[in-house]
Amino acid sequence: MEELEATAAMRSLGQAGVMLTTKSYLTRDGDFFSFNPTSFSHSSYFGGYALGCEKPFPYQDQSLLGWCSGALIADQFIATAGHCLQDISGSGTSCADTVFIFGATNTQVSEGRFPADHVYECSKVVAGKLGSNGPATVDFAIAKLDRAVPNTVATPIKIRTTNKAVLGENALLVGHPYGLPKKYNTAPVNHLSDASGSYYHWNGPFDAFGGNSGSGVYSLDHNEIIGILVEGSQDFAYGTNSQGEQCVDVNYCHPKPGESGDHSVEYECSPGYPYGEKMVGSSQLYAECNNSPDNTVVRDMTEWNVVCAQMTSLASSSPAPSPSPSPSPSDDNDDDDDDDGMGGGDGGSDNTKEEKFYEKDYVQYAAAGVVALLFVITIILLIRCCRKPSKTQQQSISHGHLSVYMDGPVDGLDMPQIKSVTVV
Length: 424
Prior knowledge:
By secondary structure, the chain is of the alpha+beta class. Helices cover 18% and strands 29% of the residues. The chain folds into two domains: 3-350, Thrombin, subunit H (Beta Barrel); 354-423. The chain has helices at residues 8-14, 42-45, 86-89, 106-111, 266-269, 301-315, 352-387, and strands at residues 17-22, 27-29, 32-34, 50-51, 68-74, 77-80, 98-102, 113-115, 119-133, 136-145, 170-175, 183-188, 191-192, 201-204, 216-219, 224-231, 236-240, 246-250, 277-281, 394-399, 402-407, 417-423.
């Protein structure tokens, strides 16, 4: 989905997303940074291949300015994939040559310019790692911007610091597939790897591409980051069209017969990703916020303490999500993903305890309501007795759904005798 097609709830999460691009691509122009959209066309990106062998090529009129994505997790710090920055991966673009752009939607990209307060340089890489930790893929980086981001541009999104993603949880991917303007995509969590401490990864059948690497993946159920996209199956297929031209298609995938309910459709395209794209768990970003952080992961301890403090503050600003349930025997939690590509079923949580808490609250509220009504009725009866003595043998007083019947004479200021109380 484009920015304008996403819901308000999605956009409130996606506002923290950034496009990573190369500093030299942009030119300062007063209060704006500009670029020439025609220099970043699809035809240039695909080296002269005809676009679309069998089907129309998606978004082919949009410029491809970016090469990775990220998300704001503190007022001056961005989380992205480790392989997106040369400082962590050893190849690609370095922090010093990278800029981060907020609000790189189709509208702004098509105009070829961004407000200067939406563009930030990479100051330093504070922490990151590319590799593995036990059974878990590890692939993240936290970069410091050259200045703090004002709330008028974007606000940091809290991350899930301890609990895993939950099978069946509704997730939202926001990023820049193969460098396109910002796109939104939803999918469920459908596979969890074994964990090694705070390190683990998970999968979901997103429609992601290279360029989405580093994208924040959010829980729509809890409004927090639950992962960073790092890997997926092959994005494009090359061939020859009916005119004999070399052409490129988006790799349209189809489920194998009888397997559409158990695997993502990407299984047909890449058996190494039977559960779809791979996200590293957001707890990786918080893993070294302890008394003895790994100095091969943390590169600047002073800045790291600032990041940890802000992530902790954001995480504690609202109730934590329910812990991930223990997998049932039918859940496949084996780590059978192949790390053979860079990024670019249903399940559910056990809400029994939560529902019991709600039931307990309702009972308490109902009991308190009855007591309050009885108190009010008693006051009313006293007033009526004082003002209008009655000699009838039985009166009925109704208040809402509560009826009280009095038996015996009411004489002067004598208290009436309550015979029965009926709650309807």
